[in-house]
Amino acid sequence: MRTSYDFSKMKGQKNPYTARLKQPITIRLDRGTVAYFKNIAGELGMPYQSLINLYLRDCAVHHKRIAMKWVGA
Predict the structure, then answer these.
(1) pLDDT tens digit string along 28-40?
(2) Nearest C-alpha neighbor of 57 from the set 26, 22, 28
(3) Contact, 51 vs 37, CB < 8 A?
(4) In this predicted model, what pLDDT tens digit does every residue of 47-56 receive, in sequence order?
């Protein structure tokens, strides 16, 4: 192994996986909802955030919408 390396001649290249990166967000969920997904995720042996992401992605892919009307102030 060398004691030092010269990286000045290397050509940089963009990360090919940037399109697959997840966007971090802050979302407020009630405790019961989080507990529900944590319980299912625990049974499946996966992180609950991944389970919530999979569920929301399934809703987006299949264009699922809940039948409700929001009454704003």
Answers:
(1) 999 999 999 999 9
(2) 22
(3) yes
(4) 999 999 999 9
